[in-house]
Every structure is written in C-alpha cells, then in structure tokens.
Amino acid sequence: MSELKGYNVAVVGATGAVGQKMLETLEKKDFPIGQLLLLSSSRSAGTKINFKGETYTVQEAKPESFEGVQIALFSAGGSVSKALAHEAVSRGAVVVDNTSAFRMDPDVPLVVPEVNEIDIEKHNGIIANPNCSTIQMVAALKPIQDAHGLNRVMVSTYQAVSGAGAEAVEELTDLSQAFLNGEDLDPELLPVKGEKKHYPIAFNAIPQIDVFQENGYTFEEMKMINETKKILHDTELSVAATCVRLPFFTSHAESVYIEVDDTNVTVQDLQRLIEEAPGVVLEDDPANQVYPTPLSAVGKSDVFVGRIRKDPDHPNGFHLWVVSDNLLKGAAWNSVQIAESLIKNNWL
Amino acid sequence: MSELKGYNVAVVGATGAVGQKMLETLEKKDFPIGQLLLLSSSRSAGTKINFKGETYTVQEAKPESFEGVQIALFSAGGSVSKALAHEAVSRGAVVVDNTSAFRMDPDVPLVVPEVNEIDIEKHNGIIANPNCSTIQMVAALKPIQDAHGLNRVMVSTYQAVSGAGAEAVEELTDLSQAFLNGEDLDPELLPVKGEKKHYPIAFNAIPQIDVFQENGYTFEEMKMINETKKILHDTELSVAATCVRLPFFTSHAESVYIEVDDTNVTVQDLQRLIEEAPGVVLEDDPANQVYPTPLSAVGKSDVFVGRIRKDPDHPNGFHLWVVSDNLLKGAAWNSVQIAESLIKNNWL
C-alpha cells in the first residue's frame, strides 16, 4: 500500500521561507508522498511542523539522512546543496535544487517546466530550479520565442524582500513602522546579509541584490543573464539586466523589453500567445486599467503579464510587465512541478 | 532701492507640494525678489505662508493678478496654466511653467539649464519645465550625448508618490500603516486621481502613472519619450519608457539603458563625464557598495548617477542608475534655475 501511496520525499530547509511554501504547495497540490522527511541545519532541528494534520519534527540534514529518499527538494542555501546534494544522489535520490549551486553546471538541467521540461530527462541526479526572477521572465518569453524568434531581452526588476528570506521580511516590517513613527532607521540585513554596508529598504529602492561581481554587475543580474540563455537554449541571445530590491513583501515585477526576429508582429499577436501559454495569464487591458501588480499576484501559482506595447521607435521592439509570486512560481511551485514531471514521465 | 532688491515674482500653486518646494528653493538660493505674490485656486486662497520671516496671504489667481509681475512660476496643474499663462505674459510677465500644458508646443522652449539653457533665449513669454522623470535622465545623458553620441535610450522608472501631490503622500502613509496593522486597504487616489480604478500603493508597485493613451502607453511614458527628444534636440533618438509608481515618498530612480554612437567607450569614460558634468554627481563604487538610492537623494538639488556598466552582449550598450529628488531638480529647483538664467542672461 505504501508503494501506491507515493514517494519518499525530503524537504531540505523546511523551516525557511521557501521551505514553508514547498510544504504548503505539496499539500495543496496533493503531491503523492509516501514518507515525508523534513531536514534543516542543526540550528533549526527540533522544530515541529504540521503537514496534512500530522506533526513532523525537523531533523538535522546529514549525508545518511537521505537513505531511502526518492525525491529531495533542497532550499537551504548554496553551501548546504554543495555539501549534501551529491550525498543524496549517491543514496538514490533525485535532487531538485532551489539554490544557485549547480544552475550553470553543464551536467545539470536548469528547468522551468512550461519552457524546457524535456531537459529534465537528461538529469544525472540533480535538476536545478532557476532564480525566481528568471523563472517568471522565461515563462512569459518562451511562447514569443517559439512563435516569432527572440534576439534581445532587457529587464529591470522590481523585487520583493521575501526573496532575501524571512529575516528580510521582518526588517521591512520593522523599518517601515519605525519610518512611520518618525524614528531613525537602523538597517542590519539588506541589501545582502553579511555585507559591510546596509541600506534602509523601508520607503526606498536598493539597486543591489546579492553581491557585486568583478564586472560591476550583481550576482542576481548575472543569474538572470546566464540562466535565461541556458533555459531558452540560446547562447547568442542578448540579455541585459538591472535588479532592484523594493519595499514590498511578495511577488517580483519586471519591466521587460524584447526584440523579436519577425517583422510585422502586433501587440495582439503577443497577447494571444500569452493567453494561450501554459502557466501564464494575460492581464492586459489599459482602457480599463487592467494590469498585474505584486499585491494582485500574491498566493497565485501563475505568471501574470500586462502592459504589452509596441515600441514606436523600433519595428521589432515590445514592452511587457511580468509579475509573479516569487515564493511560488519563483521557487516552491516550480520545484514541485519539476518533481511532478519526474514522476509523470518516469524520469526518476 | 526696490529695483535693486529684485524682481516681482508670482508663485502660482503656492500651497501645493511643488509650490512649497519652490518657495523653499527661492528662499534657500536667495533669489532676488522685489515683491512676492502667492497665488492659488479659490479653494486655497486665504492660506497664510511664511517666507523669509514675513507672512503672506495666498490670493486667488486671476488674469489681473499678474499686473506688475516680472516672473511667474506656475505649478497649479495644466488647466490653470492653460487659463492664465498667456494672461500673465500679456501683462509683461515671463512664465516658467511646471505643468505639461505647453511642453510640446514648438514655440515654447523646454529647458533643463544644464542641458539646453540656450533655448531659453528664444522664449515668447513661456518657458516649460520638463516632467520630473525626464529632467533627471537628460541631465545624466547630456554629457554622454555630447562626448560619444547617443542613438538609443530605454528607461524603466521607480517613481515616488510625491510626484502625484500631497494627497498621494497622505495615501501612502495611511495605507502603509493600515497594511502593517493588518487592516483592509481602501485606495481612493492612486494611480491617478479621478480614474475609475484605484490600486493600493502600500507595499506594492503600480505600472501606471497618469492616464493611458490610445497606443497603450501612459501619458507619463509619452512625456518621457517626447520631451527627451525635444530637450536633447534629436528627433531621431530612439526612446522607450516604462513608468512605475512605487511605495516611497520622495526621489525618482531610473534604470536607464543607452547605446552610444562611438565604439570602444569604457565605463571609466562615462564615469569621468558624469563626474565633470554640472548638476550631476557620480556615486558609483560597486566594490564599496556605493550607489544612490531615493532616500539618499532626498533634499538635494543634484542628480546622482551610479551602477554604470557595460553590456557584455552589446558593444555600445551601457546601464546607468539615475536618482534625484523629484520635487527639487525634478520640479522646483529646475524652475528656479530657469528664472535665474532669465535674469543672469538678460533674457527676461
């Protein structure tokens, strides 16, 4: 009976912001779970978590924890994935990793199921879940790439603090209240935990997400640039990105500019493609002020697209405004989709 | 003595958010004022305002109010400017208009003094102050255009609520506190006063500033596109814009992407140009997390530029992050600069 009931699943980083959403998503989507194992750092071990009416105790993640595990969903930071993902694989698990540890590894598929599900088949035990801001963008761009070709992508992001974890959510809450009270702001976390300088996120915008690279780009920007090319299977695609942290809690928004290969493409063509694409919802009616916002996307699995416009100064240029819940499609839901695909296609 | 003391100045819209900043700026810059006349709608007439230790009573703006006025700074909305600017001119005043009423009129110079001061000389009584988000962008782009040529500009904005007036500031304050208290949000003003739909700005992003045009762009976006070409004297310049309202009070930020004409331009070249340009301050040191933010620019007259990067995928492409106080350089200070230029150059 337990065989029929489902698969042995481990969630690594079960107490984190994304881990919590993974559990909610597994429950909501009624994922076929045999045994569920909740793992974390030693610091969070012992935490009690409720799942489908049963109470689970979070255990410290160790190599031997993965004995008997079939699917391991990792979301506990890159260092944990680097230390334990191969240990899990060597014990027979397939790892869906939500960190940046393996994303650009040529042996690791980087997958958004609506875009490149077929890449999952070639896995060697690890499938990487892309960066949140990349996922929602490529989900919107894929149908356009397929229909009209794509040679250029330029994105400026409007990213929620929950992408920096539960502590960042707390910092936005606390600093916002302090600001409204007329008190001094004393930021300690954002833009990046452990960095030398911190800037207040309350009623502000911080043009730094993750650490700076030698070339002046942040790691978040380089993730968007490199991951987009890998997922869309086009190393020649020109991608430019600026990533900005903003004072809202959930859902990333993106101002995306694209140039398609075909000429004579219309706004209506793109609207129809978005409307028909899986996992993507068109919310685009300027005359009635219909467009997505971060707040309107919270708690939803889909990617929302609006404000599609043609560039009057460039024959093949279009704008899109792309919004999605960064914790769901941007993280937990995309990981669970990959796990569902592993089962459905017998790719475990 | 009164002749030597200064000029007769009228501030139209003296009780508004920008009007207040105009008075602060006139005081701070010690503008040579003979008689000061504070004007407003009949609704705000009677308000008492302090200027340099004297109390002034705001009077209702009427055609005959402008008798004897030499310089009239208008900032009371487009309809007031349309009704009264020509009345002021016919009575001998030179009007500096901070609304969109005359900006694209070919007979009206549209001026950012650091960029195209010389255009002021050709005025026929009215000089238009550009849109706030346009001013800061062209101030940063002008030295680059002069040195290396400019053929493309793409901007995504991060705009403060004070651009929508004092009521919008109040709405952000009230809705933010309501959100933190876990109360329902009941937006009544933003994105646009008088529009059918309103979206909460607290902990959100609204991709609509001003009303939608037939082509799917907002009026704010079309202002940026058209005004940039006019101020930079280049009708062939390709300009693309997406304008977004965000939950902070003051200073607009802009993610600007440009393509220059010259090849082999370096980041250091652009940094040097920005450093030497008037009214523009370079804040760009990624290794030490130095970049401008909206909060860091509040109350300052300059335009701040950081995050200058070369596009690895396009030989002539660069990113810039441009921040300025939307009420000062974006409105009051630019208007006062125009008035100063009128006097200094004997162009009254």
UniProtKB/TrEMBL annotation, chains A, B:
InterPro entries: Asp-semialdehyde_DH_CS (IPR000319), Asp_semialdehyde_DH (IPR012080), Asp_semialdehyde_DH_beta (IPR005986), NAD(P)-bd_dom_sf (IPR036291), Semialdehyde_DH_NAD-bd (IPR000534), Semialdhyde_DH_dimer_dom (IPR012280). Substrate binds at residues 159, 245. Residues 8-123 form the Semialdehyde dehydrogenase NAD-binding domain. This is Aspartate-semialdehyde dehydrogenase. It comes from Paraliobacillus quinghaiensis. Its EC number is 1.2.1.11. One of its GO terms (molecular function) is NADP binding. The gene is asd. Pfam families: Semialdhyde_dh, Semialdhyde_dhC. HAMAP family: ASADH. Belongs to the aspartate-semialdehyde dehydrogenase family.
